[in-house]
């Protein structure tokens, strides 16, 4: 409750047989953009216990930037987001590039869910596109990036706090 969207987490992603296939973990780190030592990092394990890669926030003054790293911590993809993560009645796109930052590879999109859902809930819909032949570990790590993007830029604690206040009365 105290840390809001900066809180640490362990997340399990299950298959249809209810078996854990991907495990995401994020330690507690402050979220100041002025302090490069506080950048966010998610470890992606697939299967659980085997590191598939890391999602690492890259320092940037106003535009969201992330690196997708393999298990050896080598950058395999980069994500570049828009300066403004607010788009009334439209999708918000985060482009995915090769490490050279010029070769377009895919996209993570926060999809517009409609006025009612956007205003009154904290639920978000995301889409993700990447080449079919992308390494399976990189795909799993890119999926982890979606959750980090959601926590960092779209988690709205005031809606939850207001809902909790109303639910308890």
TrEMBL record:
Q: Which UniProt keywords apply?
A: Calcium, Lipoprotein, Palmitate
Q: Name one GO molecular function term.
A: phospholipid scramblase activity
Q: Does the keyword Ion transport apply?
A: no
Question: Record's GO cellular component, any one?
Answer: plasma membrane
Instruction: Note the Pfam families from the entry.
Output: Scramblase
Reported cofactor(s) = Ca(2+)
On the tree of life, the source organism's domain of life is Eukaryota
Instruction: Report the sequence similarity comment from the record.
Output: Belongs to the phospholipid scramblase family.
| PANTHER family associated with the record | PHOSPHOLIPID SCRAMBLASE, PHOSPHOLIPID SCRAMBLASE-RELATED
**What is the recorded function of this protein according to its Swiss-Prot or TrEMBL entry?**
May mediate accelerated ATP-independent bidirectional transbilayer migration of phospholipids upon binding calcium ions that results in a loss of phospholipid asymmetry in the plasma membrane.
Q: What protein name does the entry list?
A: Phospholipid scramblase
Q: Which organism is it from?
A: Magallana gigas (Pacific oyster)
